[in-house]
DNA sequence: TTGTAGGCGTTATCAT
DNA sequence: ATGATAACGCCTACAA
């Protein structure tokens, strides 16, 4: 049987209330009893029962992090940011994922918002509607949304349009006029934003946007890159560069296929990816790409949610972070 | 204010106890009241308060997963296994890491074992002593250790010695007689086991083990690989192959450095890594390596812990999983 | 400075 | 089949 306040109280010949006050460092306790109680507590290896404490204080001391899919390195990186920004965090992190569960995302949100198991929630790239997100607001569970702007809740996200714009600007600056774009509409990627940046850059240089230069892939994999490479070189528009908002693995697939087809990168085909995966530094030539500040997103989110939970800040906040253009050798 | 059992009880003109029985599908409830209660509960969007329930049942419905470092792809992969093996899991996963925390690993274990916040714990690669792990057993908190054999608790781990043995066998089979080994004693990697497999393979072919062929790196990074490559080629023992239990990134660093030095891989230098990171398929030539069944480890661990928590199984279990030799083009 | 008493929202054991 | 009542372990007025 675990040791409780009462056990300590008996030995110290005081009441549980007194012990509680000592444990919680409340004032107005005589030095004598404080020492006695503390000594006994430590002797018995007392730790407060977290659940009982939660019930008494209506506080779970936990925050929920809801991720779409732990297999995504993007998500994991944000999670790292959340966990490592430590703030000497006294909140337990509870992890939920929405892929392959019996519950839908919306059902999970309903449940978490009402079960009182967590004091606040961080949602990474939720796909549901704003209306469905409202449940957190309605139940007064502080919530921050990552990777998506949200009117009704706090959010932390990046400016993908600008990221793509910069990448395309770089290619145009290198003299490319026919630049292919590879997109992927799977999951919850903000692909349209990224495509917009590409279009804006082109138009600012009076290069007409041509949808025949935009190719779609099903997934961010080398195989898809290999397949789409064929389409690129068969295009009558003869692209001399590719910008790949779909992701780095597609970009890597394209590079490897191009090289093995005897082309040289970037001379025959310049390649710019999106994400800055670890593999971007491994492929030869190393991949020029757009990095999202994932750690910082997690970082900002956890700071924000704790401020909200502890009532330091009440208005809805939007934090927009910039992407970073990582210039390597593939373009 | 969240809606409670009492709210429902009032509207349904029954007591909270009755509502509780309905919510928990207990028998001996008239169809009438069952329907009435359920209707009101759903109308009010009632969800049981998880914390109150936990206090009443002495069950948190949560399992703790304690990882050394979320930045390790190894750890993340195991975590994926844990989360995805769903078993329609009704346990919340709480995530703790032991790097850069104010608490030491041992302190964390003490706290978690006694706070009653979790019903069971999965420890990934704990570094502490067996004695320090005993707290889980003492407090009757079921616990599974991953990636390390443990006498006092359940464990799930791989046979690293055999993995290394197979890899070395492969190199010897290709005719290599002078095989360098790269180790890394950082963190909690079972480097000695891996080195043992290498030694065993050599000795089974009457190739004397030579410690001058074993090099140490500080980390599993390309930079370390680059640095150690110099040492390898400068060795008077002229190794024609390298086996790198230290990890794939070091292996990749070696390959890239060798290629840029004008050598060809595997002809001039055969390279075998350890881990099978995503980047192993990206480097040119693709990396031959030893894969650990990380998903399966997570998978087995979660199944095991749930059996323990629910009392289906009481004896201490050891699950040893095999590694898999992934044959690509670098050897 | 410390004790008493009530409550947090459930579940569980009795009666009835 | 349902209602009273106590209990889970802790916190917090309030009283003494």
Main beta sheet of chain A: 6 strands, parallel
Mean pLDDT across the residues of chain A is 95
What structural class do helix, strand and pairing data of chain A support? Answer: alpha/beta
Q: Roughly how much helix do the residues of chain A carry, as a percent range?
A: 40-55%
Q: Regarding CATH, which class of the domain at 160-291 in chain A?
A: Alpha Beta
Radius of gyration of chain A: 26 Å
Can you tell me the CATH topology of the domain at 160-291 in chain A? Rossmann fold
Strand segment count of chain A: 12
| Spatial separation of the terminal alpha carbons of chain A | 65 Å
Largest sheet strand order of chain A: 2-1-3-4-5-11
**What is the strand content of chain A?**
15-25%
Q: Which chain pair shows the most residues in contact?
A: A-B, 50 and 50 residues
* Helical run tally of chain A: 12
Overall geometry of chain A comes to elongated
* Secondary-structure arrangement, i.e. CATH architecture of the domain at 160-291 in chain A: 3-Layer(aba) Sandwich
What is the assigned CATH homologous superfamily of the domain at 160-291 in chain A?
Response regulator
Q: Write down the secondary-structure element order of chain A.
A: HHHHEHEHEHEEHEHEHEHEEHEE
What does the oligomeric state look like here? Answer: homodimer
**Which residues of chain A form runs of ≥5 with pLDDT under 50?**
none
């Amino acid at each position: 049987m675990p040791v409780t306040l009462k056990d300590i109280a008996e030995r110290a010949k005081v009441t549980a209330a007194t012990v509680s006050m000592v444990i919680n460092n409340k004032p107005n306790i005589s030095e004598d009893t404080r020492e006695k109680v503390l000594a006994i507590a430590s002797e018995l290896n007392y730790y407060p029962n977290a659940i009982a404490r939660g019930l008494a204080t209506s506080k779970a001391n936990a925050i929920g992090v809801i991720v779409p899919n732990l297999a995504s390195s993007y998500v994991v990186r944000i999670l790292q940011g959340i966990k490592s920004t430590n703030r000497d965090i006294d909140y337990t992190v509870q992890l939920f994922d929405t892929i392959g569960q019996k519950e839908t995302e919306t059902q999970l949100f309903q449940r978490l918002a009402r079960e009182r198991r967590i004091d606040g929630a961080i949602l990474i790239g939720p796909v549901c509607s704003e209306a469905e997100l409202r449940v957190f607001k309605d139940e007064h569970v502080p919530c921050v949304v990552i990777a998506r702007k949200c009117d009704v809740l706090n959010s932390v996200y990046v400016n993908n349009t600008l990221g793509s714009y910069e990448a395309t600007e770089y290619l145009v600056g290198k003299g490319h006029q026919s630049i292919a774009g590879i997109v992927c509409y799977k999951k919850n990627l903000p692909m349209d934003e990224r495509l917009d940046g590409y279009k804006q850059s082109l138009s600012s240089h009076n290069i007409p946007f041509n949808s025949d230069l935009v190719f779609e892939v099903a997934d961010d994999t080398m195989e898809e890159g290999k397949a789409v490479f064929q389409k690129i070189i068969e295009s009558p528009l003869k692209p001399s560069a590719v910008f790949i908002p779909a992701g780095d693995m597609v970009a890597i697939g394209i590079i490897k296929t191009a090289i093995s087809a005897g082309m040289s990168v970037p001379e025959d085909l310049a390649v710019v990816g999106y994400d800055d995966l670890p593999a971007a530094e491994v492929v030869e030539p190393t991949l020029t790409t757009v990095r999202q500040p994932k750690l910082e997103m997690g970082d900002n989110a956890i700071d924000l949610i704790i401020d909200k939970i502890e009532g330091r800040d009440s208005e809805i906040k939007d934090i927009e972070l910039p992407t970073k253009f990582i210039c390597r050798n593939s373009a």
